[in-house]
């Protein structure tokens, strides 16, 4: 029996930081409003010419170094992104080329803010089937390029960045004490697709377009969807909220995170929060938060780590990992 074990993680943030006060110089808003409604204080913004694949490569290199592996050891690359450098080819193939890998397979996965959880679940199925041995799972985004910087209801919420983990297929006994991905649960419901979308693309305006969102509607559905899919993870493994060492949710909004943790009964000190510094980095937010909590010593080997995300589509999902 094979299990997908996390053996390295890494992240990369663009240098430039945009504070709430900086945004208050662009649109009618305030630091107080943004902090109170979202918990966001600052976000990183990619420089001109700094693309999603560039951020992804930096995060992938950091994850490989952390795992003590060479690029050549990787035979599967999945890049979760909604902000690819080009419509095609996939950003993952650019990462593959930059890392000098010429074997194996690389592809993108598009599930917006849920992208990292979807990519992790997909890689897990490849690795536990025995078809591939070591995967780079990357979440990388430059949402700053999709924003309408004159729309205060959306431009204050997002940021740029990338994070990655290395997974390795290892023999396991098959209990929940084994390290690795224990269970994943994914959902989508396309009836909600117009509540959060980008109004451009080859099939519509033939431009990149801008992010459009019914913020209240997203908020209204988020907590229920998140807690449902986490309860699926608890049912599948027999764990409860008390067993979780670290809750690393998608970082969209502190109020959504707090309400989800409270509904599930997860203690606030177990919740990893980075939305204050990173804003919502979509598919990158979970691996960025994981890298922070690993680097500061919170997440340790053997810890039970619960991941969840919800985003455009709607898509939503959870993953339970023995670190
Ligand atoms: N600064 C100041 N005022 C603002 C701003 C702003 N940046 N944005 C909106 N307002 C105003 C509105 O115009 C409105 O004014 P009005 O009452 O005069 O019409 C007022 O604030 C209230 O607006 P609401 O949209 O009702 O504010 P709400 O409390 O719902 O907060 C927010 C908006 C923060 C977007 C919230 O709905 C939210 O967080 N939704 C979830 C969306 C989200 O996180 N999306 C991320 C992508 S999906 C995901 O990752 C899960």
Automatic annotation (TrEMBL):
Looking up InterPro entries in the UniProt record yields:
ACP_syn_III_C (IPR013747), ACP_syn_III_N (IPR013751), FabH (IPR004655), Thiolase-like (IPR016039)
Domain Beta-ketoacyl-[acyl-carrier-protein] synthase III N-terminal, by residue range, is 107-190
Which Gene Ontology biological process is one annotated for this entry?
secondary metabolite biosynthetic process
* Pfam families with a match to the protein in the record: ACP_syn_III (PF08545), ACP_syn_III_C (PF08541)
Pathway of action: Lipid metabolism; fatty acid biosynthesis
SUPFAM superfamilies documented for this protein: Thiolase-like
Which reaction is catalysed here? malonyl-[ACP] + acetyl-CoA + H(+) = 3-oxobutanoyl-[ACP] + CO2 + CoA
What EC number(s) does this enzyme carry?
2.3.1.180
Principal location: cytoplasm
- The source's domain of life comes to Bacteria
Q: Where in the cell is it found?
A: Cytoplasm
Entry keywords, A to Z: Acyltransferase, Cytoplasm, Fatty acid biosynthesis, Fatty acid metabolism, Lipid biosynthesis, Lipid metabolism, Multifunctional enzyme, Transferase
* Active site annotation, chain numbering: 113, 250, 280
Query: What GO molecular function annotations does the UniProt record carry, in alphabetical order?
Result: 3-oxoacyl-[acyl-carrier-protein] synthase activity; beta-ketoacyl-acyl-carrier-protein synthase III activity
Q: Give an example GO cellular component term for this record.
A: cytoplasm
Residue numbers spanned by region ACP-binding: 251-255
Entry domain remark: The last Arg residue of the ACP-binding site is essential for the weak association between ACP/AcpP and FabH.
Q: How does it assemble?
A: Homodimer.
Please state which protein family the record places this protein in: Belongs to the thiolase-like superfamily. FabH family.
Q: State the function annotated in the UniProt record.
A: Catalyzes the condensation reaction of fatty acid synthesis by the addition to an acyl acceptor of two carbons from malonyl-ACP. Catalyzes the first condensation reaction which initiates fatty acid synthesis and may therefore play a role in governing the total rate of fatty acid production. Possesses both acetoacetyl-ACP synthase and acetyl transacylase activities. Its substrate specificity determines the biosynthesis of branched-chain and/or straight-chain of fatty acids.
Name the record gives this protein: Beta-ketoacyl-[acyl-carrier-protein] synthase III
């Amino acid at each position: 029996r094979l299990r997908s074990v996390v053996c390295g993680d890494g992240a990369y943030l663009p240098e430039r930081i945009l504070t709430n006060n900086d945004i208050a110089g662009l649109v009618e808003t305030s630091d107080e409003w943004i902090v109170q409604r979202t918990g966001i204080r600052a976000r990183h913004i990619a420089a001109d010419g700094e693309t999603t694949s560039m951020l992804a490569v930096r995060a992938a290199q950091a994850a490989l170094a952390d795992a003590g592996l060479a690029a050549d050891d990787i035979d599967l690359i999945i890049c979760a992104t909604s902000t690819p450098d080009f419509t095609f080819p996939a950003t993952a193939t650019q990462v593959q080329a930059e890392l000098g890998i010429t074997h194996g397979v690389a592809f993108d996965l598009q599930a917006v803010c849920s992208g990292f959880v979807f990519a992790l679940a997909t890689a897990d199925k490849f690795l536990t089937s025995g078809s591939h041995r070591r995967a780079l799972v990357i979440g990388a985004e430059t949402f700053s390029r999709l924003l309408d910087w004159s729309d205060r209801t959306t431009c204050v919420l997002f940021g740029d960045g990338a994070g990655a983990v290395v997974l390795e297929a290892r023999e396991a006994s098959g209990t929940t004490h084994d390290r690795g991905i224990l269970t994943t649960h994914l959902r989508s419901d396309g009836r909600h697709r117009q509540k959060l979308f980008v109004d451009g693309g080859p099939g519509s305006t033939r431009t990149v377009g801008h992010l459009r969102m019914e913020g209240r509607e997203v908020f209204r559905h988020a907590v229920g969807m998140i807690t449902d899919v986490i309860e699926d993870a608890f049912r599948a493994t027999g764990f409860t909220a008390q067993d979780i060492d670290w809750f690393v949710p998608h970082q969209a909004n502190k109020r959504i995170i707090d309400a989800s943790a409270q509904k599930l009964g997860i203690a606030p000190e177990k919740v990893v929060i980075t939305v204050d510094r990173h804003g919502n980095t979509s598919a990158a937010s979970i691996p960025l938060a994981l890298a922070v909590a690993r680097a500061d010593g919170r997440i340790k080997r053997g810890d039970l780590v619960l991941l969840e995300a919800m985003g455009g589509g709607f898509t939503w999902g959870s993953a339970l990992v023995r670190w």
